[in-house]
Every structure is written in structure tokens, then in C-alpha cells.
Amino acid sequence: MTGALWSSAEAAAATGGVASHPFAATGVSIDTRSLAAGDLFVALNDTRDGHDFVTDAFRMGAAAAMVSADPPGLGSDRPLLRVGDTLDGLRGLGRAARERSAATVIGVTGSVGKTSTKEALAAALGAQGQTHAASASYNNHIGVPLTLARMPPASQFAVIEIGMNHPGEIAPLAQLARPHVAVITTVEAVHIEFFADEEGIADEKAAIMAGLEPGGAVVLNRDNRHFERLAAAAHAYGVGRVLSFGTDERADVRLRAWSTEGWSTRAHITLLGRELELVLATPGVHAAQNACAVLAAVFAAGASPEAALPALAALVPPPGRGRRRPIVLADGEALLLDDSYNASPPSVRAALAVLADAPGVRRIAVLGDMRELGARGEEEHRGLAGPILAARIDHVFCCGPLMRHLYDALPAGLRGGYAPDSAALLPIVRLAVRPGDVVLVKGSLGSRMGPLADALAGESKGGKS
């Protein structure tokens, strides 16, 4: 059917289901809040039973619904795709979409930088051909098959983000995505609550190579202390091409020099003997290192690194990942560095380094708990005191039981305020911010630092307040 992503016959064949009526779906949705007219709504049994929202989905223009039970209050004339289990059905759609696609697929994993690298790759490859990538951080057992199920058959490139927080999660997702190129941004003590040590995390990240297509390539961080372990894993998985990136002189894509200029970063990169110059709209050496990973993956995917440079230069940070936003005050304006989407020890250290170089009257850090650190939680939070002192931060505001350990470790002169949660911290920060300040907001998603950042910027999910 012209213009359809999934016909009823294709969807039934992919899922092993039975369609009650013919349909043609132009998209796939698992959430009525973001559903578009023409979508196939998948009624997942997740935090809530999706079958309770099937009627709403049709009211909003859904083309059909994938169900494993009879939805309440629905007429018999509605097109349903009946399957035994809707999550298995979603995986079936993802698997079929991958099988019918001739796209070059790049899989991205790593302890930090996955989403930023995915976004940069999507931009770099999108300048050279039709490129498919998720619009958000869809990297788990639901997000990966959903991203694949939404992939247009005509895609020339696809970028699939693959994450984990428990052992054994990456391999099945990689085997579903079947990438031609796998990128491991770095390995750090993130999600370590469920692992014995960092080596266990490295082994789990290496499992992305279990799904690598024959003749595929893996891109590894030469500066990371687990590089040799990952390179050995590549050999064990039978990977024939290993490309490395970083500042190490042995790196295939080497960051030879960089400098921060205001809110941008200038990088001089050597890619297998080819000299590349790049100016990024994101400050910090971590941004330049991410660019090296992206250029290595672009090269491995058979695209042009040179053609990728303008797209990378035009890229701005995604919402909640270092985006700059104004804070309008009664007598002037301050600047918000909104890095509120997530946090880990290495990403907080990187954000503090950016704040250290930020032009402003005062530098203020507003920090929420970093989650999933297990027994290392207290130590990792207290350990941020050193980077804060090195970054010459003027005031630090903290919320959450884990950030209390950092707050107590700081000199009294740096302590701006503490509260048990972000909602209680907001009025304290509001009273403290002055015109000319630069304010970093960062914390794990569960710390709910995003609403605090939105409130400081005078916005809410509904728009301007």
C-alpha cells in the first residue's frame, strides 16, 4: 500500500498475528500522548495496561491497534491485530523491519555519551542519505524494537542506541538490530549497582558485537582504560575491523588538538592520515572526543567524514543534555546550562569542566542524586568535591539523600543550599540566582532535575508559564 509503513498483511506476517480488518499504518506508537493519526498503536502491558488506552488511540486517529486481549468499550468495526503477547509482537515488527531494510545500521552503546553520539551520527549521516534514528533515548527492550519497527524501508542509514542497566541485556538487542558498525563510546562505573566491577560493565558493552553483521566494524575509545579488554573481545567475537578514537597517538581517529572558544570547541582531528578541522557548538573536550567517535563510525559505514563536518558543526545539544537556556530575572538575565536529563560520575565531571570555562559573573552548580551506583553511591558523590574545587565553582546547591554526602564534604563557603528533593530545592535556588550567573542543573532522571530546570527557565511541559 503506497505510503504505508505497515500494511495489515505485513504486520500480521511479522508478528504471527491475525488482523480483524485490513489497515495501512504510517507509523507505530506505544503511547497515546504522542500518537499521530495513522499509527499502529501497540497496547503494551508495561507500567500500565495499554489495552485501557486503545479506545483513546482510535479516537486520536490510530489506523489499528495491536492487542493480546479484548480492549474495553471498543466496537467490533475497529481494526485490531491480535497477537499472543504485544511486546513479542513489537519485537516481531522490529525484526521484520530490519530484515526488509537495505540500510547500513550503526549501533551505539557506552556508559556515557550514547544519546549525544546517536544524535550526532544521525545528523552526520542524514547529510548524505535518508537516515533513521529515534527522536529520544529509546535504548532498552522496548525502545530498540520500537525504533526498528518505525524504520522506513527506503532508509539508507539507521542509528540504533542500545543501553543496559543489568547483565545480559545488550546481546539480544544487538542481535535484533544487527548493526554493520558498533560504537562503544566509553566504559565507566555507570549502572554499577548491578555489576561486580567495571570489567563486568566492559564485558556487557562488548556484547553489542554479538549482533554485528559479518564483515562489520567496531569503534572503540583508545583513551579508555578498558580498550585492550574490548579489543580482545572484538577478536573473540570474530570482528575483523577495529577502529579506535581518542587523544592517544595510536588512535585511528586522533584528536590532536582542541580549544574552547566561548561556547564552542575547535578540534583538529587526524583520521587515518586525513586532516580534519571542526568547530562544534558544544564546549568541552568531551564534545571533541565524541566527534572523533562519530567520524570513525561514519568512515566505517562507508560515508564521507568530510561531508559530515558541516552537519556536526551545526548540531546543538539535545534538550536536557547541556542546552543553554535563559533565566529571566526581574533585573536582568542569567544563563542555564540544562544538563538535567541524566547523570553519572563521569558525566557530572565533564559538565563541571564546561561550567569552569563558562563566561559569567558566578558559576553555580545545582546537583541531584546520581542513581544506580550501589554500594559506591556515597563514595562517588563525596568524590565530586575535588572536581568542584578544581572547577572554581562559586556555589553548589544539592538535593537528594546521596548528594547530602557531597554537600557535607564541601567547604562552608561553597554551600549554597540543600533540600531533600528538587521541588524543595527550587525556591532556594531561585532566591540565589543573580543576573550574569551561569547555572548548571544536573542529576539522574529519577532525581527530577528536569522540572527544576524548566521552572528556572520559566517553562513547563505545557510551554511558557
Task: Explain what this protein looks like in three dimensions.
The protein has 465 residues and is α/β, with parallel strands linked by helices. Helix content is 33%, strand content 24%. The protein is globular, with a radius of gyration of 23 Å. The chain folds into three domains: 6-84, Udp-n-acetylmuramoylalanyl-d-glutamate--2,6- Diaminopimelate Ligase, Chain: A, domain 1 (3-Layer(aba) Sandwich), CATH 3.40.1390; 101-314, Mur-like, catalytic domain (UDP-N-acetylmuramoyl-L-alanine:D-glutamate ligase), CATH 3.40.1190; 323-464, Mur ligase, C-terminal domain (Protein-Tyrosine Phosphatase, Chain A). The strands form five sheets. The chain has a nine-stranded mixed β-sheet, with helices on both faces. The protein has helices spanning 8-15, 54-59, 86-100, 114-126, 143-149, 170-177, 198-206, 227-236, 285-300, 305-314, 345-356, 377-382, 385-390, 403-409, 422-432, 449-456, and strands at residues 6-7, 18-19, 24-25, 27-29, 39-42, 64-67, 80-82, 104-109, 131-133, 157-161, 181-184, 217-221, 241-246, 253-261, 264-271, 274-280, 323-329, 332-339, 363-368, 395-399, 415-419, 438-442, 459-460, 463-464. The protein has 16 helices and 24 strands. Residues 460-465 have low confidence and may be disordered. Helix 7 (198-206) packs parallel to helix 8 and helix 15 runs parallel beside helix 16.
